[in-house]
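User: For documentation purposes, I need each entry recorded in a consistent format: the amino acid sequence on its own, followed directly by the corresponding structure tokens. There are two entries in this batch. Please keep commentary to a minimum and don't merge the entries.

Assistant: Recorded as requested. Entry 1:
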Amino acid sequence: MATQNEGLPGYDVIIVGAGPAGLSAALILGRCRRRVLVCDSGQYRNAAAQAMHGFLSRDGIAPSELRRIGREQLAPYGVELREVAVTGVRAGARRFEVSLGGGERLVCRKLLLATGLVDRLPELAGLREMYGKSVHHCPYCDGWEARDQPIGVYGQGSTGVQLALTMKTWSDDVILFTDGPAPLSEAEEARLSRHGVVVRRERIARLEGEDGWLSRVVLADGSAVERRSLFLKARQEQRADLAAKLRCAVSEERGVETAEQHEETTTSGVFVAGDASRDVLLAIMAAAEGADAAFGINCALQEEDLA
């Protein structure tokens, strides 16, 4: 069923990205007897995380271990995996040409982008050493571990307010650090006060702790506030520009936009799964989207094969 074009090696599907979304899609497509290549750049959004939570049957597993198990389970189905980045893509007549790091070119009938997002962290001294241990961006992933402890929230404006109120689910002791002046509305101020969230507007000098575990937030005036964890709303960007190169609709708010069914983008034959489409950003949702995309891809291939 694989295509050939201009002598280039051909696949039914090339999957760009080997996190939960890409591996889940590869499993379904491999079981559909499709010739599948998964390209793994080795870059993962949750690389700093100690454990992955909320994934049924795998709660608390290290992300690297989930990927290892996923790869292992692809073996019986002939799915090909390569440790390589995809550097370019080009749409042709009913096929796509994919360029790999090192210069090799391949073609495929359908393309799945599971490239995810990159979190752009604020420049706070000490933050990167603690990120993934006691500094987090997802309360659903790490809120339980911070339960009933002093929690800090880093954020400005409405996003900071919303995150601070969200963290009340896990602790009664929540402080919002705005790291400078924060023009909050009267309604926002009143809501925070009503729910017992203290707002600290001083500039932050640094985060202090040991072995990646936060103990205090040090402010610019030299004072310190004891906290055991810090949650923040990081700015997010697409990890790869492949969707834009293929003229898929991409927006800052919605990510790579998909059709109503089975994760197909606005460019025919190109599908997206995982965080790149900016739906609910949980690993189990990424895996589900990968399975959904695989279903849509195989249905499209079947229609072509049986035409």
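Entry 2:
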Amino acid sequence: MSIVSDNMKYLRKLHGMTQDQFARRLGIKRASVGAYEEQRANPNIDVLKLMSKLFNVSVDDLLKKDLRKIRETPNLLPIDKPAVTPLVSEPKVGVEPQTLSSIFEQYYTPPAAVPRPQSIPAPPSVPVASVIEPPKPVAPVQLPSPAYQPPAFNNQYDNSNGATMVQMPTAEYEKTSPQLIPYVRQSQWKEYIEKHNNSDFIKRLPVFQWPLLPKGAYRAFEAGDDFTYPNAFLIGQFIGNWYDIADGKTYLLVARNLGVVCRRVYNQVKIKGTLLLSSDKNTIPTFEVPLKDVLEVWEIKAFFSTVLPEPTVSLDHLRHLVNQMQEELNQIKK
């Protein structure tokens, strides 16, 4: 099966992936990728289907066509372009700062039959090491001084001279203590893209505190439909330089013509001047975004949601139940 081996190696290199990165995307061992490419083993139909979905190429083409011979054909790999995230109408200017508790109140309404208590008794004291402190809502405050400048992302890349690496200055926001985290709702995404580097706009955003985060510049964004858990807020640490973006980690990107998206990112800047974005949801296609269109990158460090995840089904438990049923059927037949 030399054609599929050559096609696998060609498509992997065309998308700037190492064997290890390619194996992780397919959910197989790196040694298996090497064996397939060196024709020491043949990929099974499941692996072929995964490759077909990843590169948007039919299984029939992978098996029968030598894709290297039509490399210059523009429509060789019709990878889906990203759908533009719909941006809602601009919010009202001058929104009052909100505390973290007000966020939860907007998503939760107590049952009518149970009146809300006027006061909540303090919980019993427990050793500090046994619990994690909940978020601490704070009163609206002013972010630092007129000298404050929002952090800037280095998206400089020159195709002719190679990658441009610039040491970005430390933002004044990183020096604040205690850390105050502004948050952005989906209704503010359009305005945020236009004013993300406007210090007056950033200072008007509501803020809250979150425990146990190391020193750095943080911002929270209301998650969209591309995040696994609904009604969630994502807390991201600012990434100042594109070469600090690590393959396979989850980031929140703010980009022109794209909006605010949460994806696993693969750094292809040195090879193609792009970032490869992959979603944990199978219904969302993988695509590339030019580095020059990226305005901000935030590495997801924490999130909170008002919806608990659904329980997962244990395959071992199901197998045990099937065995029990089989034993009971055998007893009945006797």
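Summary note for entry 2:
The mean pLDDT is 76.
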